[in-house]
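Notebook, student rotation project (T.W.).
Task set for the rotation: take a protein with a known small-molecule partner, predict the structure of the complex, and write up what can be learned from the model alone. Partner molecule chosen: flavin mononucleotide. Sequence and SMILES entered below by T.W., checked by me.
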Amino acid sequence: MNIMESKDLLNLILTRRSIRWFKQDLVPDDLLYKILECGLRAPNAGGSEPWYFIVVRKDDVRREIHKLLLEAHRLYATSSLKEPIPKDKVDKWLRRISEGMYYAPVYIAAYADFRRMTHKEQLLDVERTFIIQSVAAAIENMLIAAHSLGIGAVWLGVPLLMRKVFDDIFRPPEGCELQAVIALGYPSETPKSRLGKGINEVVKFI
Ligand SMILES: Cc1cc2nc3c(=O)[nH]c(=O)nc-3n(C[C@H](O)[C@H](O)[C@H](O)COP(=O)(O)O)c2cc1C
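Predicted structure of the complex:
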């Protein structure tokens, strides 16, 4: 890779933001396949590729998922946190969801595939972690790939609060467990760049 390409990649990583408002234009197949392919090239524990993805584009199913995302965010905002979110903030967030926030032309459900566990009994929880981390790496690859193609995306964890209900829609293979839903589409918002924690706060050099 030459320096120019590597600068581009760094810039993409540094400028990616979660996109929660989408145009309803179709995401072309070639871009969607490229995003998925980037997910499948992620590092994965022991070369096990322990993932399974379900892509939703049908209107009626997207509407159902969007309704569930409202419920899942409601559950998150009202009953999951030790410190509750103030009611006016929750109401505003839920109202925005009803108005179309998170309504995307494509949803990708990312599943961890636990069907081929290979570790000894006493290491199964470590293997579970390996598998979940591999899926997370694939998700991040897809978010960066989407950003590089001008497609916005957000990683949604709240569906894990009601996995069973989401499984009823996605109908994954037996032995697979939902890890996230990614909403994807052309952005209809432009979030400002985000300055998070600094290196001094979260890195120790030895
Ligand atoms: C594991 C995980 C779960 C997340 N779940 C949600 C979610 O359910 N809803 C949501 O709006 N954003 C969700 N996000 C996105 C984060 O809120 C977002 O990445 C974070 O605020 C940083 O903002 P940025 O992605 O724009 O840099 C999730 C991100 C991760 C990594």
